[in-house]
Amino acid sequence: MLNIFFRTAAVTGVIVALAGCATTSPIERPELRADERWNVPLTAGAKAPDEQWWQAFGSEQLDQLIGQAFAGSPNLAVTAERVFQAEQQVRVAGSSLFPSLNLSGSTGERTTDDGGSENRSESTSASLNVSYELDLWGQLAAARDEAEAGYRATVFEYDSARLSLASSVATTWFRLMALDEQLRVARENLAIAERTEDIVDARYRNGAASRAELLRQQTEVLNQRAGLEPITLEYRQTRSALAVLVGVSPLGFEADTGTHSLMDLTLPAVDAGIPSDLLTRRPDLAIAEAQLQAADANLAQARAAWLPSVSLGLNAGASTANLASLANPVETLGWSITLAQNLFDGGTRDAQTAISESRRRALVEDYRGAILAALQETDDALDRLQTSQRREALQRTVSERAERTLELTDLRYRAGSDELLTLLDAQRTLFQTRDQLVQLRLARLQATVDLYKAIGGGWQQKDE
């Protein structure tokens, strides 16, 4: 008994002494600072985005489509499954910190032939084995930390996928509304051309217009009709793309743009905050940070692999020679402390540590690059938004002037003061200015969506 005490004390002393040799130290996060203002001045009275930022556009159809996309998108469902898998991986990694218990039992019979006589023997046994690895150097805890960081990264990937999906649905929906508006403008322009054709035809029959003028106007009408086809095709294809985004079949899918036109949508003023806020507002930056935390934990494991492993074992069992002696089994009880240290591995641990350090350095640069890209995306979105706003205001004035010019030219043509070519030029100019106005409104809406996405769309990191 005294022998056992001394052996136990000796091993315990070695373990305590080695615990002081642990070299896994915490690794500091990189500090990256950004300027406190954007290159483009912010709009006065702008509001910070809500988590459901798309509702600020005032489109019930858009709100319904994004809700449908969240519920039915296959890509989002795949990302959700990855979150579940990562959560289970945390359980797997965490289980190593607890003892392992194994229960086994057996019974059997053996017959031997000894010179013509049979000898039969029976045996029954049961045992309980308990094993536990002491995590003196934090290697097992680091493995759990790596799994937890990986889980957080997948949660942020899911949040990022939701943000990207909502942005894609919004921009596709706005594009569909713009095409619907362009079709309306094109049909109005066609109606103007057809009315002009009737006027030219009447003037031709009265001898006030030439055959060439009539053919020219008929050609213009045909061109206007032909111009409807590519817009209609793009409308159908955009509608199909929207169906896929929301997770339904494009066959038979209808997207009612409602009674509101593109020009009726609300254009929210978005507060982009200050550049340093992006570090906590964008899920993709949270992904990069979580991946860096996982790399830290992986490096801690690689460093801890240089230190000895210590395991405890306990075994209890009972056995009998036959079933009749179950009441008086032979009982056994044993324990063990195992200390293992790799003395030579051909440089494997050196290489694994170097790989972990290199991966961490690469992730630091990825993190820094993601921050720089986020700053650029936000500043560019602000620039596009303000530029498109100014261009739309100017284009609206141009469109009003073109409409007035056509009215006057039409009156002058009817009175015989202007030629048909002048009238045709006025018609084309009006059509082009109206079409350009629609495209600029679309650009402004898309720039607003880009800005929402660039600043994280009201996303906030939730406590796990």
UniProtKB/TrEMBL annotation:
Residues 101-126 are annotated as: Disordered. SUPFAM superfamilies: Outer membrane efflux proteins (OEP). GO terms for molecular function: efflux transmembrane transporter activity. Pfam families: OEP. Keywords: Cell outer membrane, Lipoprotein, Membrane, Palmitate, Transmembrane, Transmembrane beta strand. GO terms for cellular component: cell outer membrane. It is found in: Cell outer membrane. Its main location: membrane. InterPro entries: MdtP/NodT-like (IPR010131), OMP_efflux (IPR003423). It comes from the Bacteria. It is a lipid-anchor. The keyword Protease does not apply. Residues 110-121 have a biased composition (Basic and acidic residues). The keyword Ion transport does not apply. PANTHER family: BLR4455 PROTEIN, OUTER MEMBRANE CATION EFFLUX PROTEIN. NCBIfam families: outer_NodT. Belongs to the outer membrane factor (OMF) (TC 1.B.17) family. This is Efflux transporter, outer membrane factor (OMF) lipoprotein, NodT family. It comes from Marinobacter segnicrescens.
